[in-house]
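Hi C.,

You asked whether I'd gotten around to modeling the 318-residue construct. I have! Everything is below, sequence then structure, no commentary in between.
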Amino acid sequence: MRITPLILTSAAAVLLVGVVGCDGSKPERVEAADVSQAKGLPQLLSTMPAAISTDTAITFSAESVLAKDDALSDLKQGVRGMGAPSLARYTHVLKEDLAIDLMGADVVVTVGAPPKQVTLISGGQDAEAIIEAAKEQGWEGDKVLSQELDMQGNVLTVSVGHILAKGDSVMLGGQSADLTAKPGNVPESMKALSKCLGSSPVASIDGSDAVVSAIGLKQGSPVSGVICTFDTSRSAAKSRGEGIEEAVENDLSVTRLRYSDMLSVDKVSHPTATTSRVDVSFPDQRPPSVLWQMQQRRDIPGVSGPDPLDSLRGRSSP
């Protein structure tokens, strides 16, 4: 199995994503604005040498889309590079020291958390230049270049222990990541949440909360957002969507602010039998980053904390 480079064609603005398997099947083409849909993100995940389970954290950003979207690019708290949260702060250093252009990529996806995280920076890269620069900076090896943690001499080694560059893409691994491992299977929950997210050019999936969920932003002016959840039954998914809407209207966040001061529910839908999608807007010019702050605080309404559906099931969360 080999990774097929992602290609953004200027004429059709189409991303080529996927894997060429042993059967010689061709990758599927996916519209650039739809790379987080079921045919996009799961295909990307299926190329990555990382164990993916229902509690795996996944972040995604379609940099080629964000670069052309004025509303998203102009956000006070930027969204560029959010597909690689541990690397975004090193954008300049990555480019200067390793010839890695994070903002020039087509798509950036990160699976897992440090020190085992794996980041795919697909499109817009020069593998030969990256390999040459990495060796000059102390990374060593043949196919995979590696360097031990060196907080005094090279701050990048905190997040980049291993480098695998090929064609117009590069894969970066944390100190405990294995870039030679075989890609794992993508759980149904991740596939369902990817479909639920739709055309979100920026998204974050969190499987470690009480409920497996995802958040994303939608293109438009003003920018709006989406909350997606995965449940095991149609009835649970229906109750979940209603619960999120009710929590936004009536509950307080852990910051003691009303959710309704930060979010407004525009629509509740169910893209699949086991997912709920809640489209939200941000009142009073609240920054869309409020969704990421909620996720980091385990404070998404109707999702975080003890599972609110447990009372309906007659049991408590562990």
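If it helps when you're writing up: Residues 226 and 236 are 19 Å apart (CA to CA).

Thanks,
B.
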